[in-house]
Specification:
Blueprint (H helix, E strand, L loop, with lengths): L7 H5 L3 H34 L3 H37 L3 H35 L5 H15 L2 H16 L4 H23 L9 H25 L14 H33 L3 H37 L3 H35 L5 H33 L4 H25 L4 H25 L11 H4 L9 H7 L1
Length: 479
């Protein structure tokens, strides 16, 4: 729902039932979008699992490195999403548009940079994972094809974030559905070889992913241009250092948080790899099944970020708190249901990916543990979105550092390797970390010291009026 197509403040100041409805109108399209985004990875793993476990491990290791790239791209998206939502809540339309375009400039630069890193350092980066030679060769091929054109990944993250910041979660959802249907069909054709297309295996999966991301970028540009709020202005493509500073001040801690998470993930992935290729493959498969539940949490986190961000921008702090509480309870309830399904159906889900009884059993054990901590994961995701909406990305970064390194990575080694619990110990460690961080965020939220209100900026220096459309006075009012 595009909140800015109506009167947002009148719409958002609702009764409990009205707030639930608004949250659902934003969350459901975001859940669907996230589901189809995740479907890219799910389809790749499913199709490639029919080739062999070495191929599954190669894609899993590559995705662990890609997650670091995603961390940067998502951080730019988070910063843009929040700044756009804050600006629109304060009814500063031109400020929102300007920040959105500045975020796109930043995404292009980082997309080109990560592509260059992949071109020259793909194999050395994968070697950090301690992979077997066969897995390393497969992973290098997949990594280069998927990540050299990283600019399309980056643009997709930020274009979608801009739309969501403007209250439009439907357009990213539509784009996601289209590109993932095409990705699934193209992936099948290129992986296994159909008609005139040769069998390409893992390379086919990679090329299908790249093609779908290029298409997704074009579709999202179209939706941004259709938006009355986000339509591009030629003069806004000039780099504005004040807005870049604003994006960096909010995005840098968010990037730091995700980088810390992914760096820790690479370390404990190395521990899992030491347990054997089949164990690592089981871990990757379990993660690809569990991520379906994640998508519910991310959808509600998106709704909370948009609604709380707009209310904070408008100065309605109590309303921001109210939307956060309601959204968090809703997410926890739904992810509790998803957790129950994971607990009960884990082994069945594993059997879709492997015929090996040992691998299926390990997947089932992992998903049983995962099912127990899903409600806590919902709290963690949703409250993190609220903190971001309140311009507070530093505390989640510090908390992630403590949780990932002092708890998760240490416990993965202690339980999984030292005590010999294997994959079961790994997933218990993950659950303990999630419960710890969710608890800390909840306590800080209840105490009311979770916001970081931004400083005023020199609005006149930010104005770029178009003479045929607005005066300097109009521009200042918009900022």
């Amino acid at each position: 729902m595009d909140l800015n197509s109506e009167n947002p403040q009148a719409l958002l100041k609702e009764t409990l039932s009205g707030k639930v409805k608004v949250i659902l109108l934003l969350a459901i399209p975001a859940v669907i979008e996230n589901f189809f985004q995740t479907f890219i990875g799910f389809v790749d793993v499913y199709f490639v699992s029919k080739i062999g476990l070495a191929e599954v491990s190669a894609i899993g290791a590559t995705n662990a490195l890609l997650a670091i790239y995603f961390a940067v791209f998502m951080a730019i998206g988070v910063a843009s999403n929040v700044r756009v939502a804050n600006a629109l809540g304060a009814k500063k339309v031109e400020r929102a548009r300007h920040i959105a375009q500045q975020a796109l400039i930043l995404s292009i630069l980082f997309g080109i940079f990560t592509g260059a890193v992949t071109l020259f350092f793909a194999r050395p980066l994968l070697m950090l994972m301690g992979l077997e030679e066969q897995v390393l060769d497969i992973g290098e091929t997949y990594f280069k094809i998927v990540a050299i054109p990283s600019v399309f990944m980056s643009l997709m993250f930020v274009l979608s974030a801009n739309l969501r910041g403007a209250g439009d979660t439907r357009s990213p959802m539509k784009a996601s559905i289209i590109i993932n249907i095409i990705h699934a069909a193209l992936g099948y054709v290129l992986i296994f070889g159909i008609w005139i297309f040769p069998e390409m295996g893992v390379s086919g999966a990679a090329w299908a992913t790249v093609a779908s991301r290029i298409l997704g970028t074009l579709i999202l540009i179209y939706y941004n241009q259709r938006s009355g709020v986000l339509v591009f202005r030629k003069d806004f493509w000039t780099v504005d250092w004040q807005h870049q500073k604003e994006l960096a001040s909010l995005g840098s801690p968010a990037a730091g948080e995700r980088f810390i998470m992914r760096a820790g993930q690479i370390v404990y992935f190395g521990f899992i790899v030491s347990l054997g290729t089949s164990v690592f493959a089981a871990h990757q498969i379990a993660g690809n099944v569990e991520v379906i539940s994640y998508m519910v949490g991310y959808g509600f986190a998106t709704a909370v970020t948009v609604l709380a961000g707009q209310q904070i921008g408008a100065g309605n702090i109590d309303e921001a708190v109210s939307y956060t509480k309601i959204g968090t309870w809703m997410a926890a309830g739904l992810m509790g249901v998803m957790g129950t399904l994971l607990f009960i159906l884990g082994e069945w889900a594993g059997s879709l990916f492997s015929d090996d009884p040992t691998v299926i059993s390990k997947i089932g054990d992992a998903l049983k543990v995962s099912g127990v901590f899903q409600p806590f994961l919902a709290v963690l995701l949703t409250l993190t979105g609220a903190y971001q909406a309140a311009n507070n990305t530093k505390f989640p970064m510090y908390l992630t550092a403590a949780g990932m390194w002092a708890i998760r990575t240490a416990l993965v080694y202690f339980l999984g390797i030292y005590l010999g619990w294997g994959l079961l110990g790994v997933w218990i460690a993950i659950g303990v970390d999630i419960i710890f961080r969710a608890g800390v965020l909840t306590i800080k939220f209840i105490r009311g010291n979770w916001m970081r209100l931004e400083e005023k900026v020199d609005v006149e220096s930010q104005c770029h009026p178009q003479s045929n459309k607005e005066t300097m006075s109009d521009c200042v009012n918009n900022y």
